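HOLO CASE FILE
Compound: glutamic acid
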Amino acid sequence: MPPASGPASSPVAGFSPSANIAQLRESATIAVSQRAKALRAAGRAILDLGAGEPDFDTPELIRASATAAMNAGATRYTPTEGTLALRAAVAKQATALRGRGETIGANEVVVSNGSKQSIFNACFALFGAGDEVLIPTPAWTSYYEIVALARATPVSVLGDEHRGFRVDPEMLAAHATSRTRGLLLNSPVNPTGTVYTQDELRAMLDLAERHGWWVISDEIYRRIAYEHPASSALEVAGSRARLIVADGVAKAYAMTGWRIGWTVAAPDVTRAMAALQSHTTFGASSVSQAAAVAALEKAAAVDPLVDAMVREFRVRRDAAVALFRSEPALQFVPAEGAFYVYFKAPGAGRIADAGTAFAATLLEQHDVAVVPGVAFNTSDWVRMSYATDLKTVETAVGRIVAAWRAEHSMAHANT
Ligand code: GLU
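Model generated. Tokens follow.
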């Protein structure tokens, strides 16, 4: 039978995207890693530092729990908001983080298809046309798009590049208007690896509380921190009334493909997000939820594996940072967590969108895939991920530094 329509790349007569997505740009983080995979499949020996996903296998014990659940009949729809077992496990973890004798209930948790959907649910439920949402910048590419999909306006608050792009209450206040309704926090930060201290987080949360802003705190990298533990907003927020914490299993347990994220929020916000999800994706995968329960509940066996993974990330981080340090003119953020190093492109200050130009050079001439900083709203910069084996990290960062030096000295010879 002939196909019902032409190939995906051929234009459809009369098609123009709806107003909902007219301004939407495809996720650059995903596009880079898909392009790297395609080039590899076509025979190019690409070193992929684009991917934002752990290269480890999901621990065996978690996989076995999923198989057992599947064989025991966990193959049907689950409640929209997630299985009680998983919500209870998340609530228990959140209660422990919160401390101060407060109990967080399963009715304050919605399980979603990855924390990206959790953040989408929160933004869509809380923000709308005319609202402004403050985003410490650089930040993960999808925050800006998700806020815009909710028809609100993302407001970039550029951090201090000499302090790991940290943002503080004064910077946030300088961007606030009468329309500000939310603040999107993330620590450890994707793409910089910056980890906010408890005091820094508390100061921003206090400001938000004074102004009545909603805070969405994306804590997906919380377990991956090297210098000091990364704090949860649950630990430091004075009030939880306007706090939505998003987390999931993807990064800590190397479970990206299982697609399980969640929010912890006040019951009425939780109900609103669940109602929204009941019309979009409904309950997350039954088998994946069973696996996530094992990840959280079998902590005695799983946590040492997480710690070992973080130690391995740290070895790679140290190796990458040592190579970046070998070129004193090369500015980079000394990554304290997550699995990224953010560095300034050689053309910064001379050419527009220097990060994209350098990323293209790295891919075309040096077979190294990285994500241009324009995706994170800082176009002079470039993100590299060290979620790949040590040898690849060393080889690829060696090429990055050599290419950087070559471009930098050429530019300076010409001036
Ligand atoms: N969060 C990861 C990244 O920044 C995974 C890809 C994505 O969802 O953006 O690369």
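CASE NOTES: The mean pLDDT is 95. The pocket of glutamic acid is lined by residues 27, 29-30, 52-53, 116, 140, 142, 190 (CB under 6 Å).
CLOSED: yes
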